Amino acid sequence: MRTRDIVLFIGLLAPCLAQSAALVRDGQPQASIIVAKDAGPTVQLAATELQRYVEKISGARLPIVQEGEAVTGFPIYVGKTAATATLVPKEPEGLLIRGDDQRLVICGGSDRGTLFAAYRFLEQALGCRWLAPEIEVVPTNKTIEARPLNLRSAPSFTMRTFIARQEERQTWGIKLGLNGQYDAAHAAANGGCYYLPQAIQGCHAYYQIMPADKYYEVHPEWFPLINGQRHRSDGHRGQLCVTAPGLADEFARRVIAVFDDDPSLPMTSISPNDGYGWCECDQCAALDQKLNGGRTTKQGLADEKPFMGDRVFWFANEIAQRVAKVHPDKLLLVLAYVNYAEPPDTIKPAPNVVPWLCHYAPADYSRPINDRTSEANAQFNDLMKRWAKIAPHLLMYSYVSKSMWWRLPRPVTRNFAADLKHEYSLGLRRYYCQSSLNDWALDGPLYYVLAKLMWDIKADPEALAQDWITHMFGPAAPEMTQYYDAVERSVRKTGQSYSDNPPRQVPGLYDAGELAQAQQHLDAALKVKASDDEHARIAEVAKVFQYGVHMVRAIEAGERFRQDLTAASLKEAKDEGTVALGFAKVREAKEYLDRFKYFDALGVLGSGFGEAEELGGRPCWNTDETGLGDGKAGWATFLIETADTTKGAIIEMDVWGKSQLDGIVINTDGTGKGYSEGGIWNPVPADHKLSGEEKWETLTFRLGPDLLAKDSRTQRLGLGGGDSQIWIGKIRIRPAE
Q1: DSSP class per residue in 60-117
Q2: What are the CA-CA distances from residue 419 to residues 213, 393, 436 (Å)?
Q3: Helices (H), 308-374
């Protein structure tokens, strides 16, 4: 709580004095819940939730009555009523909980504030805890005494959001005081919390607002000109030609229509698509030159790229200006991401444009953002400070559940808590968590601590985490506390950084001794005498941790195999990976391990191939792993060994004759990075074309020394792309003559 918050007494479950009033005594109701005659659905929900949880605790169902009706027993006023109007907090989401021997008042500065107040009372006064979307702790007591209580509070952050569209995640978020991101269906009940429209879901929005299927044929000039040709765009490739005549008008019309259809909708994203694919037409280039001199950026990127920050926010302001004429109170979210992560040089975001800064480029999740021992975080910290100066209404985009980290062990609570406090110190008051809230067994108390800190930034993260651990694991809490500490130390001890690429970053990241300590504390926790629920939770944490430990070993062995291509390293990677997937099925981990399966079948270490098929009486694998007609994937890579890079190599590839293959590419710089990351890939043609017949044929590819990555035992090659259908049966490598 803030310093002005005062709690005189919250021990309503303590033994009572003989003459004290009671809400419930010996399982019988002794109070009534009073709401205003015109109470809306959010206040009604606050009242019924108070009624429901009091009944779960005591077995007594308190009646809910409207103000002016007969009241039985001790009065509990919920929301603004005639009797409590002078007590209502000024802050819209502020809350007041005040009790004496005459009455109890639970209200907020708005209906939503009242709902938050009801849950705060249940938590702090009655001992309820909501630890994860599917886990709550509710005490039992047949008598609930009314005691003096005075609490005033208001949230530190004005926007406190997780991804929470599922029912149980939305209700959990409300109970913890989060005000988004939910959905329109629950807006009336939750007092109009923040949500995104169904028509423009998520953050990347250009392709949703201006879908190529609708506009490309009639207005190809609205789509990006790249290498002299107009390209269709989708969620992961290609942007828009923002200078094209008529585009801004139609884009804004579509956004206005979304707000017209849902007047309660508070905001939408109008952000660029994921990835790159920026328009190169003369008009867009001239705009860049005018706004920032056409400069480049390497902010968190592998190589220099054209800086797009001014272009992105110039276009956003164009849209904002049009939307504000019809809907002046609506917010437009615009990502600050990859090569537009930096603040614009000359463009200042309009008041209704909310920059959405992603902690992604650059990022180091092994330590707090303001830890300057990390070069990546030092860069991002400076970037964030620059944004805070020009846009204090900035919305931080935090990768709380880093989806690309494959559920591996990681330090979480302390780092994110430190980040949140630091961002608050810079004047930022909006925070968005990329997390589906579905992995408490991995992330421990992280969600709980962040939700609490977003409400009260001065709270102690260690105390909050301990509260969560104590209620989650009961008598095993001391061992589980030690477990979480050991996991955090396992990364801190090595001093190595990680962001979003386990195959590259896991080797050397963990201290094996600390991981062993973590396992010992889990084993000890499992032996503690605890309730069935508490024991089941410990077992779930242990299962996810076992997956993580074995997957770490698999990745470490896989990296050794990539370097030495020995049978022992390959066997260890496959064996450890098989054990890991026995504990948890993680898609990204399975895809990583599949490349070792390809080694046995194809003769090379590969990735990106589909499931095994049979053509012409022999097994084969298609490069299009996602299926024909979706326009996605179709790109596969494989590694070959080249002990002597001065001689070159010859690749013989058995290919089904109907395949769409006339050449492959080789990663000459040896980084393994894609084109968008600055990787250098050179084409290698086949010695002849395929016949197009249903039969197996052999293509030969000759790799000259100039194409090989120098001083490397392995070379990475790729083939396919899009919906191309390429069936590979075997790949053989031999030195060039």
Answers
A1: ----EEETTS---SEEEEESS-TTTGGG--SSTT-EEEEE-SS-EEEEESSHHHHHHH
A2: 41, 17, 20
A3: 309-324
Which residue reads 């005659």 in tokens?
37
Residue 8 has pLDDT above 60, yes or no: no
Q: According to DSSP H, which parts of 176-246 are helical?
A: 206-209, 212-215
The Cα–Cα gap between 373 and 242 comes to 40
Q: Which helix (H) or strand (E) holds 582?
A: helix 567-583
Cβ–Cβ contacts within 10 Å for residue 262, how many?
15
Q: How many domains does the chain have?
A: 4
Q: What pLDDT is recorded for position 4?
A: 35
Q: What are phi and psi of 225, to 5 degrees?
A: -90, 115
Look at residue 421 and tell me if it is in a domain: no
Q: What CATH number corresponds to the domain at position 107?
A: 3.30.379.10
Domain assignment of residue 562, given as a range: 483-594
pLDDT in tens, 552-604: 999 999 999 888 878 899 999 999 999 999 999 999 999 899 888 878 888 88
Residue 472 belongs to some domain of the structure:
no
Identify the residue whose tokens are 């779930």.
540
Structure tokens at 653: 């590839």
214-223: pLDDT as tens digits: 999 999 999 9
pLDDT per residue as tens digits for the range 257-315: 999 999 999 999 999 999 889 999 999 999 999 999 999 998 877 778 999 999 999 99
Same domain, 571 and 673: no
Q: How far is CA 380 from CA 222, 394, 395, 604, in A?
A: 33, 15, 15, 39
For 81-120, how does the pLDDT look when each residue is reduced to its tens digit (9 = 90+)?
A: 999 999 999 999 999 999 998 999 999 999 999 999 999 9
Question: Residue 169: which residues within 8 A CB-CB, separation 6 or more?
Answer: 133, 162, 163, 436, 437, 438
Contacts of 570 (CB under 8 A, 6+ apart): 557, 561, 596, 599
pLDDT of residue 17: 32
- Answer whether residue 397 is part of any domain: no
Both 626 and 576 in one domain: the answer is no
Assess contact for 432 and 398: CB atoms under 8 A. yes
Give the β-pairing of 395-398 and 353-358: parallel
Q: Counting every residue, how long is the chain?
A: 737
